[in-house]
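Researcher: Final request for today, and then I'll write up notes for the group meeting. The sequence and the SMILES for pyridoxal-5'-phosphate follow.
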Amino acid sequence: MNGNHNSTTPPGDGARPGLLRPVSAGPVRLISEESVPGRRGVSLPASDVPEQPLEELLPAEELRDELHLPEVSELDVVRHFTRLSSLNFSVDTGFYPLGSCTMKYNPKLDENVAALPGFRQLHPLQPTETVQGALAVLYHLEQLLAAITGMAGVSSQPVAGAHGELTGILMARAYHAQAGRQRRKVLIPDSAHGTNPATAAMAGYRAVTVGHDRQTGELDLADFAAKLDDECAAIMMTVPNTLGLFERRIEDICRMAHDAGCLVYCDGANMNAMLGQVRPGDLGIDMIHLNLHKTFAVPHGGGGPGGGAICVAEPLLPFMPKPVVVQRDDERYDLEWDRPLSIGQIHGFYGNFNAALRSYTYILALGAEGLRAIGEHAVLNANYLKAKLQDHYKLYVDRTCMHEFVLDGRSLREHGARTLDLAKRLIDYAFHPPTVYFPLIVPEAIMIEPTETESKETLDAFAAAMIAIAREAAESPELLHEAPGIAPVRRLDEVRAARQPDLRWHMGADAPPA
Ligand SMILES: *Cc1c(COP(=O)(O)O)cnc(C)c1O
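Model: Predicted protein-pyridoxal-5'-phosphate complex:
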């Protein structure tokens, strides 16, 4: 990186004021590059205890003669890490339309409540009499989620969407076993999230794929009917599906499944699209998990901690994971362990309490009207962007979408560019790329989820960047191939980074061969 980015700097005001301008980030330096022999970040007082030879304290093979640590001042360390932190892209610095992941703004109120000392200093081993407030939060959150989904009971113990799925399918298994049924298959539409077949397999089932209708983007009912039999324990429907589309035949699907003694599991990770519009329980769905970190407010993106509350219909209540948070006759809250049919405990203590607390605060602050507005604006924003882009890119299914939509990036191919090139070029325009190459059923997929928290100005700026890139692909495709031009690092070998991550700091003799 030489600071001369004229050839690749996006024209016009692709990066709007207020959005992150990565050009300021500069090259990445290692802390070892700041090292100056003899420089110190701390000064320690002279020891006032008798020194003991190290050999008496540690086995000889654990001792090293020399330890190569960077020799830096406190200011060097502060500047280094502050600069590194500014290289991160985040919702608080820019637009993050990562489809399916719902990278919306999380209000700071929820962070403030989670940081209150009375909550922050709780210990999971405290007796229940001393954590009545925390139990009240869990109890009332579960009641609110039951009201929102129209289900009979909720457990906020699962700590991720996929964990909620596993909990639900284990409950389905226990339910069938209790009824003396041996079922071996779980039906999964090809428009479902990838965690669904993984869940079915982990719960000991065979995942059987059901196709989608190429015209509507919805479940292929004929294929479903053909595969539905008395071996099916459940069908796992992602609603809205990964094409961002509502399954308009969901009530028929539930009826057909129930007639075959098969449960309907709904992957409700993206319930944000439906908040206040429809209650899955009213549609006939038996189980649904909610990603607290997508639909409600919990910052995410680094792999946790999150929440995957599982909500179930009446017949599944006895199989809920334990302990169950209950309110006793004297109004005291308690953890109930005496649940003979429970699938057991699926996480230490009671899951991620802080995720539950943030979501509870978020729901109370918004109220019913506010929650309804989330569903409306998430859908409105996605359809607005879709309308702005559909003349410049190809839609996979041309229909009103829910909270997200999927473009078919094959139109870039005629210019020798790919979806990956588009994603990298968006970085030069100071936008986080959308989800790409997912869902797998769409070739060169570009999956865009703007979320409800973005303004019209931001959506317009993103659309302008996408349209500018479509023009660049035709006129100067090398800009796409070389992107990103103004990020601190260029294209990475993502496969090697994932397969052989090198997370250790090295210096001098420890350094790995280049
Ligand atoms: C994000 C997502 C999941 C997985 O959630 P995790 O919390 O990452 O385990 C499952 N299904 C859908 C539809 C999702 O969008």
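Model: The chain is about 35% helix and 10% strand. Residues 1-7, 12-25 have pLDDT under 50 and may be disordered.
Researcher: Thanks, that's everything.
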